[in-house]
Amino acid sequence: MHSKGIGDGRSEGHPATVDAYLCYSYVVLVKLAADPEMAAWLAAGPSMQWDAGNSTKSEAKHGFYAADVESILGGAVLFAGRIVEPEHEEARYLLLGATSDGRRAALIFARRGEKLRPISCRAMRKKEKEAYDEAT
Question: How many domains does the chain have?
């Protein structure tokens, strides 16, 4: 997995620009915070945790099968950060990447022990695509 993080010192060239760009693009929908520890954990390529609750949700709502979601970690990804608004009981994170067939995807996930638990996977929004293209 090739990973660049926002605000973690690994997005050389324009870390401040990309960080501000993503955070301000989510004023209404999502507010993000940098999380260098999570970015480092993601770089190790964690396995995913699937169950009846999350294995078909993204397929039904957004057309992303479990195999599509898993393929995202096989390519270049941009760890956008920890989602701080809206607030959730369990910490959630946003990862931008592409599936093995080239569809750009935004993966919302939680960390459960040493496993990545997908919450939702959807097509990237316009500002997410721009940030991903700029960073990868």
Answer: 1
Summarised one tens digit per residue, pLDDT across range 41-100 is 999 999 999 988 888 888 888 999 999 999 999 999 999 999 998 888 899 999 999 999
Q: Please name the residues in contact with 102: beta carbons below 8 A apart, sequence gap of 6 or more.
A: none
Could you tell me if 94 and 111 are in contact, meaning their C-beta atoms sit under 8 angstroms apart? Answer: no
pTM for the predicted model, two decimal places? 0.77
- Look up residue 8 and give its DSSP letter: S
What tokens appear for 60 in the block? 């039904």
CB 4 within 8 A of CB 136: yes
Cα separations (Å) of 70 from 14, 17, 82? 28, 29, 20
- Whether omega before 15 lies within 30 degrees of 0, making that bond cis, reads no
Containing 98, the helix (H) or strand (E) segment is strand 92-98
Tell me 99's DSSP state: -
Distance CA 100, CA 27 (A): 30
Q: In whole angstroms, give the CA distance from residue 133 to residue 130.
A: 5
Residue 94 structural domain: 2-135
In this structure, what is the dihedral angle of CA atoms 60, 64, 67, 71, given to the nearest 10 degrees?
Answer: -160
